[in-house]
Every structure is written in C-alpha cells, then in structure tokens.
Amino acid sequence: MTSRSAVLTGEVVDLPKNSSQSSRHLSAHIELGLRLLHDYVPFSYDLFRGKHFVIESAQASHALDIAMLLRLFLKSKQQQDDWDVRIGVGLTEDLSNQALASLKKDRLMVLTGRPSTDDRLRLTTKFADALLSQLTSTQAQVLSYYLRFMPITHQDLADKLDKSRVNVTQILNSTHYKLFELYLTEARQLLATD
To answer: pTM for the complete prediction?
Structure first.
C-alpha cells in the first residue's frame, strides 16, 4: 500500500447578481471553514479573491472528507442564498483542474487517472453530491458534526449541538448519514492505494 497525496481545486458557484455583500460573506465563511477543517485534517490551502481555492492534502484518503465537510460547513451557514462550491478532486493538480472543468450541474468530481478507481467512484460520488445538495442548513450542520467526530453516539452529538438526542437522530436519519459514512469509507480506501 502506497500513500498518495491529492489536490482539490474549487470555486464558488455563481451567486445571484448584485450580491457583493453575500459574496464577501461567503468568502469569509470559506476561509473560516478551511481553518476549522485544517484542525480536523491537516492540509495546506490557498484562497484566491475569495472565490477560488486550491487545497493540497498529503494523504489522498482525506480528500473527499475535506470536500464534503467544506460543502457541509458552507451549507450549514447559508442564510438566504444557496451557498455552494464546486470541487474537483485529483491525485495531481492537472487531474483536479480537469475534474473541476468537467463539472456542470454537479458540485463534486474525482479523477485519479486510474480508470477502474474512477469508474467505481463516479456513480457513488454523483449520489453523494446529489444528496448533499438537497440538505437544509440544519441537516448540513448535524451531518457535518457527525462526520467530523465519528465514531460518536447520537447522545454525545446532541450534547455538542445542544439538541435532544431524539431530534439529532431524526435529523441524521433524514440526511441518510449512513450512506455518507459508507461512501467516505470506500472512497478513503480507493484513494489511499495504487
């Protein structure tokens, strides 16, 4: 087993016109989200004009965790606008840029340069992306905490979020959290090896 690195290239999804204040607010949240995630998973990043970013992770196995958690963080902070980013994940910067350029309506794509791995991740990534895109800000917040701190009990998560355990369980079930957990587990394994 060989450890690989990964590059994530991202950009803000177009915001409505005349939304310079919303754009500044989103840029600040991207910066905050990247700093918070850096405490969870080590990586380096550059943010350009608040709308584009490049993340380099020394461990490819963490790449989709970073992408999903950043999107969940932004979704949990959205107010009136539908804040989101598109992220291309690759084992090289060229692949990351190619993945980002290929995105139209989807928000996430992974290219490893290994056809069998890309084929296995293509459909599951589309499903995970579609599920994530439909989450409310509350669902995104609860799922984000669950994925960051797993394994964690629903009661411990409820305590962190100052919610009831029953409420946290209902919200997690509505997010299909077990599917996200299975997706990230498989993705980690596929991205970590040759």
So the answer is: 0.91
